Input
Amino acid sequence: MPNFYDDNQDLRFTLDNLDLSEAVKLREENYKEAVSGTAPADYADALDNYKRILSVVGGICGDRIAPRSRTVDLEGPHFENGIVTYHPLTVQNLEDLRKADVMGVMLPHRFGGLNFPVSIYTMMTEMVSRADGSLQNLFGLQDIAETISEFGTEEQKQTYLPKFAAGEVDGSMDLTEPDYGSDLQSVRLRAWQDEKTGQWYLNGMKRFITNGCAKVHLVLARSEEGTSDGRGLSMFIAEACPQLVVRRIENKLGIHGVATCELQYNDVPAQLCGKRRFGLIKYVMSLMNGARVAISAQAVGIAEAAYREARQYASEREQFKKSIDEFPAIYAMLSDMKVRLAAARALLYETTRAVDLRTGYTHLVEEGANVTSEQRSSQKYYNKVAAVLTPMCKALATETANKIAYDTIQIHGGTGFMRDFNAERYYRDARITNIYEGTTQLQVVAAIGGVLQRDNDARIAEFFALPFTGKAARLCEKVKALHALQLEAVRFVSEKKDMAYHDLVARDLVENETVVFVSLLLLRDGMKCDKRLAIAERYILDGALEFRKRHERIIGYDTALIDNHRDIIDY
Output
């Protein structure tokens, strides 16, 4: 099997041109730990190490995880008498990754972690997902350790983080409850404190918990009596124990390799993580931002696997004495899939770069001395940029994965519907990505504020100022025209004081914002590679058609049309 890093020209191009130098310098605190021998001496040293580790993970993904994936999907985990047992091949996958020392990718050096930026961890996540989409839901839960690293006490960090980094413990994020899916502010699981000992205990139910059989749980619970909103919620750390009961595992459409559990908390001992009342408004928001990026990477990985499956099948399947990839109807589909995939990946890693810079400047401002006004401004700027890009990224990546997986089955024809081929698994695995960790509709809600407030305009201006020439310059003029229409639409919506109208056109505004921004990302990359310029051209020309349709819909909406929607539903 191929190495999933070495064989992915687009992923390697992305790393070579991402420019993480500023983010890595911040993360490594100006390389002050280089003398210890475990930290890089400079950016070149760091980049060389990133590439080496990515190639190691790529080899594990291609040689070991991918060949096991179909068996894992067919047989999955076992549940009996409240005990979840993962498939032996899943256990071996995790052991292979543990031996590669990548179970604490983003954790600080002092806890045994690699202290890699989010961007590099995301590339690993993408490759793991390409090999087995369900394994990402175990490998990708490293955000739990990150949350403890960010908000836990020093004692909690010393207790848990070395174990996470060594792969000795795994984690789960216990948020969702039976009656409250995305409505986390209504969580009811109760946290109560023994007045004599100060010990916290948890009581209640959680549902749809990925890897709910984990050894360490981050739990959102209601710590404040008499409250019913997000201000009464706190975050807790709990460990697997007899009082924490796995009631069942879900029989799911896809992502079969990981257990999704229903949990019963019966006075489970727990520790407060961070401050009381900040569970939802700060800690879960941080978790969700990380989860958006992780699921975006999962989606891109599945899309990559599906596209390659479709391309290989089309090149081997013969009809009318020639391979079907020679027929315009098929190669046009393959071309569209490749363009969509490149677009999703471009936005994903532009987003992770912003997240890395936000994280670096936030740490600098909150923990450093003699912080300059420029550094404070950078922190505020990247906070805003990351806040708008993460939901845009998840919406685009996950919808793209579903479209590419759908078309992969179409290219396979009837065989794609059969379990003898991987196509149907990619289709099933992709389907959850635009649902969990916030549906596409909720990503729109998360992104629309930044779109209306123009939080990313400075970055857009940087791209427009690039020295485009020839075809790239002509394409840039087309994007400028779309951007002008988008600004017109934003003004139009902002001036219309009608919340029902605002909510109805939000998705059109966010999708058009995505078209403008991704077009510029692809044009930027096209300056360095003619083939990528061809991708940019196709994306811009196709995107402009849908952009203008959505723009007309935004400008044309009025109260009567909103009522018309309701009339249609009621008919």
Q: What stands out?
A: The longest strand covers residues 260-273.
